[in-house]
Design goal:
This protein is of the alpha+beta class. Helix content is 32%, strand content 26%. α1 runs parallel beside α12, α3 packs across α5 and α3 packs across α12.
Length: 456
């Protein structure tokens, strides 16, 4: 089957590429291939009652399918160049922000109207953080919530399904060059196109590595972020979350001078499992609807590890730590901060007697048997630092879930158009190693669509 453009991956990058292309040139014949399910079929079987932990579905509905790994996230779109990727290094800071703002207008048009946009600009917390050796990063944050984010995706799919041919539950095995473009090979069929956009996200990291090897596209190792997800009573962080919602705070440790940062803050949210390539890790969600809120806030504390030659497999390093957690805990491990400080494993009784009711059924255990000492020491330092601006963070009953790992695709060699060494083959979103967030991935999709339209 012949198409003008084939998009591989229906995450935010792929969706916004398809949206912009079909809107500006309805005559284009576009196909979008996705290894996961259609949106309405994406259901995680974990219900907390009959199914309490990950059962290893063939296609993880949390990580794959229409909307990508962000479909069941809490729908935070951070409009900033300070974090979330290096898109601005390719296209310029102003254009990157303009594209993120454009994505925000589309989200508002397709169901996000009425959601709140937060900003760290001019906040008093910048000074408070600096006085306690913490750095609050600048950003505007649109919080859709897991529920409204899903509505936006439903509406975008309704708009696109008449203009784009979707192939769900159809993994792409390989991509090859032809004289006039590309062949996209699936299990039973081969499809051809003039231009191909690859947007496979973090869960497609191993596949992306294979494709780059086959097509001789240069890559270099990226970092991996390793840490825990913290869960505590929402009131402890409410003075921050009520004003800023998402506060990205960085701390430089005294012992090793490593950077530890907060990530993915979920006020009144829940802790959830993630399955990436068969490895169970932890993440967090929150909702816009007051009826779905909990009494807890959760956020990640992550330490970024960059590796130099000769080691190149940063994701493999993160996977090995996550596998150790899975081996000891049968999945995710949870530990009270007080137990960690005292050097003892947590048990179900002490957790049940604590002030924090867990929102995820995890195995009580000892994170010091899983996380390297350098990383764990940094996390503990950060908790005590946060306790100075949010007293109660370092309470004994604060829960730590491990491990949380953010896998970053290796950085693919791309030009200023996000085009590979093969003309007409574009690599965008988190799969490129260029973006690490919903807003940056979406913006990269719009950017590449406009570059293609300019050349048409």
């Amino acid at each position: 089957m012949q198409y003008d453009i084939i998009i591989v991956g229906a995450g935010p990058g792929g969706i916004f590429s398809a949206y912009e292309l079909s809107k500006e040139n309805p005559r284009l014949k576009i196909a979008l291939f996705e290894a996961g399910h259609a949106l309405e079929k994406r259901h995680c079987p974990i219900d907390g009652e009959k199914v309490k932990s990950c059962i290893g579905c063939r296609s993880c509905s949390i990580m794959s399918g229409f909307g990508g790994a962000g479909a069941f996230s809490d729908g935070k779109y951070n409009i900033t160049n300070d974090f979330g990727g290096t898109l601005h290094e390719f296209i310029g800071k102003k254009q990157a922000i303009d594209l993120m703002e454009y994505v925000d207008t589309i989200n508002m048009e397709y169901g996000g109207e009425g959601t709140k946009k937060y900003s760290t600009a001019g906040t008093r917390f910048k000074k408070i953080c600096m006085q306690n050796k913490l750095k609050l990063l600048d950003a505007s944050v649109r919080h859709l919530g897991t529920d409204i984010n899903f509505v936006v995706l439903e509406n975008l799919y309704a708009e696109l399904k008449e203009k784009v041919e979707f192939y769900f539950d159809t993994p792409v095995d390989s991509i090859s060059l032809t004289e006039g473009g590309y062949e996209v090979h699936c299990k039973e069929e081969t499809y051809t196109c003039e231009k191909c956009i690859v947007s496979v996200g973090r869960s497609g990291s191993k596949w992306m590595e294979k494709i780059c090897g086959e097509l001789e596209i240069p890559t270099k190792s990226n970092r991996v972020d390793i840490g825990v997800r913290v869960e505590l009573p929402a009131v402890i962080f409410s003075h921050l979350t009520d004003e800023l919602y998402e506060s990205k705070i960085v701390y430089r440790t005294e012992k090793f001078e490593d950077n530890v940062r907060t990530f993915c803050m979920n006020p009144y949210g829940i802790v959830v499992n993630e399955n990436t390539n068969g490895i169970v890790t932890v993440n967090g969600h929150s909702f816009e609807s007051p009826e779905k809120r909990t009494e807890n806030t959760n956020f990640a504390l992550l330490v970024a590890k960059h590796f130099s030659e000769p080691f190149k497999d940063s994701n493999g390093y993160g996977e090995s730590i996550a596998r150790l957690s899975n081996m000891l805990g049968g999945g995710v491990i949870v530990q009270r901060f007080g137990d960690l400080v005292r050097g003892r494993r947590s048990n179900a009784t002490r957790i049940a007697e604590g002030m924090v009711t867990p929102t995820l059924a995890a195995t009580p255990g000892d994170l010091s048997l899983v996380l390297p000492k350098r990383i764990l020491d940094g996390i503990m330092e950060m908790i005590y630092a946060l306790d100075k601006i949010a007293p109660g963070t370092a309470n004994d009953d604060t829960l730590l879930y491990g491990v949380e790992v953010k896998f970053y695709n290796m950085e693919v060699e791309l030009d200023e158009n996000l085009e590979s060494r093969h003309k007409g083959l574009y690599i965008i979103g988190d799969g490129s190693g260029v973006t690490h967030s919903l807003s940056h991935a979406s913006a990269s999709g719009v950017y590449v669509a406009r570059r293609i339209l300019e050349k048409s």
